[in-house]
Structures are given as C-alpha cells and as structure tokens.
Amino acid sequence: MMVDLKTLFGGGHPPLVGIDISTSSVRLVELSDAGKEGVRLERCATEALPRGAVTDGNIENMDQVVDAVRRVVKKSGTRARHVALGMPPAAVITKKIILPAGMSEEQLEVQVESEASQYIPFALDEVSLDFDVIGPVGNSPDDIEVMLAAARREKVEDRVAIGEASGLKASVMDIESYAARAALDRIVAQLPEGGAGQVIALFQIGAQVTHISVMLDGQTIYEREQPFGGNSLTQDIVRSFGLSYEEAEARKRSGELPENYAADILAPFLESAALEVTRAIQFFFTSTPYTKVDQIYLAGGCALIPGLLDIIASRSKISSTVLSPFKGMQLAAGVREQQLRGDAPAYLVACGLALRRFG
C-alpha cells in the first residue's frame, strides 16, 4: 500500500523540526527562513540515549527513546509539533526505475507498485512504499525516471509511534543518508564555483558505523557502510581504566583521562580510523571509474576527536575538513556558538532533516 506520510521524500509544513535518532543520542534542529540572509538556526539540542536503546537502526527500547525525545524537545524550547524523522539507509530499499511519461498520479502509483514487487524481497503488504519523480530521461523524452523507496512498515511505524508518544506528528520520513546529503549540498554550494566538478567524499563516523558517500555535481556516485565507530574507543577506555560505559563516554568528550591515554589508547584508535578512511577511498577507486577525490568532509559524533582530522589529511593526502552543517547560517539569539563549535558535525543528519521544511 502507498503511505501518504509523504514518507520517504515528503514535503513538510512549517514549522518543522528535524530529529535524528542515532545509536548514541537524539538530536534536534529547528531552522527558519531568514529571507535574503538565507537560513537561520533557531534551536538545536542533544540528549544522550542509554546504551542498547537503539541498535543498528532498530528501536530496541521504545520507552527510553521516547523519554530522550521528550527531553530534547523540552530542552530546545521548540513549539513546533511537526517533525521530520530519518530512517537508517540499511532499512530502506531505493531503486531508480524508468516509466512512460504522461501518466496520471493514480496510474503512476499502480505502475510503481507492480515494479516494486520485482525489487522488494518481502510481501508488499508489509511495506511502506513511496516514490518521487526525478524528471525526464535525458536521451529518451517519452520516459521519466522515478525513484522508488520502500521500508518495512514496522520500522516506519516505530518512528511514527515515537513521535506520537512524544506529542509530535511525524510529517516527513526521510533516509538519513539523503538528509546528510541535503545538509552537505548547502555547504558545497558555498565552495568556489559551487563545487562544480569536485569529487567530494563524506565520512559520517558514528558510534558503531561509518557511512561513506561520494558526491559529484549534486549526485551520489558511491555509497557504503563500514562497521567502524567511536564505540570501540569508548570500550578501550572502559577496559583500561575500569570506568562505566557512560563515564568513559563523558571523559572521552572532556579529555579528563590518565596521562597514558593519548599514547596507549587514542593513538591506536586514530591509526585504525585513518586506515578505514584510506581503505574506503581505495575501494571507491577500484570499484568505480573515478581516480581522484578532491575533498574529504568528516561528520558524525566522532569527527571532533582530537588528532583525527590531521591523521586523515596526512595519510590520505587529500584536503580534509570537519563539516559544520550550520556554516553560513544566521544564528538566533538563544544559540550558543561555543556549543556549536564542540558539537556541530554530529548535527549533520538532524540539520538535513530540518531543511525539509523548505523542500
């Protein structure tokens, strides 16, 4: 059945907040239209999630997640009740299909459903399905290209239920990697000549997974996930210093750790992170026709780990930057710049979700 959440591509109604539910935290961003000045960041807030509440994109403990969403809404002070939520890329099947041009919306729906049954490995009645018309096919004016997206209904319903239990209405359901790209597109547009012809690699280093996307001229040309993230560093701190997981996580952020931490624990982690990045880039070269990457952006909760940017830049020999999705935005009076400096890269997905207000 077709779901009209404007599910995986939908258009939101203002005001809309973006809420990113990751493995380790819930993050909220609210943006507004600042007219000629572009976009204003009205609010952002984050709340940590208990370990195990969300695993591999699955909501394992609904109550804990709802509790964190309620807290982040309260902390942010937002009055908005419409929310854009994200689905992990692994939970969504996307496929570009070619259909004849000139069909009505109803005919398109019927056609998309019959096409979908070929690509989706489970029964259509278990699936939330949506589609987006990309546009005419370049070399064939009688055809259009359509993006089909499907997710297991229970995974969509879990997120809708979290919204409802938190007093919010899920108006838009997006794919986290698409939201990240929307936020990145804003930054790339600020590069000389709008980044035209630049091959840009985005590494979102989360708690458990690193998501890699490579873009050229607004198109994603490569995507993949690697099982590597900041949790392994936290676990090493737990083992070495006998701390609880929560305490290790807090001290990892504040840097209040014994003297031998930098050499014995942080340095090997940075080495393996640099190796993951250089390997991923080699893999991109061997599995695509491309032979260069012009710019690496680092995002996600781990992007600001001290020393990470330097080691990646020196090992990859590629210009590397930690990505702030708020670059070039106006800041509302209540937004603390200091907080943004310390945390901005982790807000990439939430910021992309919040941008759906203008889509």
Sheet with the most strands: spatial strand order: 10-6-1-2-3-16
Helix content: 25-40%
Structural class, from secondary structure content? alpha/beta
Q: Evaluate the radius of gyration.
A: 21 Å
CATH names the topology of the domain at 192-323 as: Nucleotidyltransferase, domain 5
Report the principal-axis shape.
globular
The CATH architecture of the domain at 192-323 is 2-Layer Sandwich
Largest sheet properties: 6 strands, mixed
Spans of 5+ residues with little confidence (pLDDT < 50)? 1-9
Task: From the structure above, extract its key features.
Type IV pilus assembly protein PilM; 6-stranded mixed beta sheet; alpha/beta; 5-stranded mixed beta sheet; 35% helix; SHS2_FtsA; Nucleotidyltransferase, domain 5; Dna Ligase, domain 1; 10 helices; FtsA/MreB; PilM; disordered N terminus; 359 residues
Plain-language structure description:
By secondary structure, this protein is an alpha/beta fold. Among the domains are: 91-153, 2-Layer Sandwich (Dna Ligase, domain 1), CATH 3.30.1490.300; 192-323, ATPase, nucleotide binding domain (Nucleotidyltransferase, domain 5). It is built from ten helices and 16 strands. The chain has helices at 62-76, 105-119, 153-165, 176-188, 231-241, 245-254, 261-287, 308-316, 337-343, 348-354; strands at residues 16-21, 25-33, 39-48, 54-55, 58-59, 82-87, 92-100, 127-137, 140-152, 169-175, 199-205, 210-216, 219-226, 295-299, 320-322, 330-331. The strands form four sheets. A six-stranded mixed β-sheet has the order 10-6-1-2-3-16. The protein has a five-stranded mixed β-sheet with strand order 13-12-11-14-15, sandwiched between helices. A hairpin with a 2-residue loop joins strand 4 (54-55) and strand 5. Helix 4 crosses helix 10, helix 5 packs across helix 6 (245-254) and helix 7 crosses helix 8 (308-316). The longest helix has 27 residues, at 261-287. The two termini are 24 Å apart. Residues 1-9 have low confidence and may be disordered.
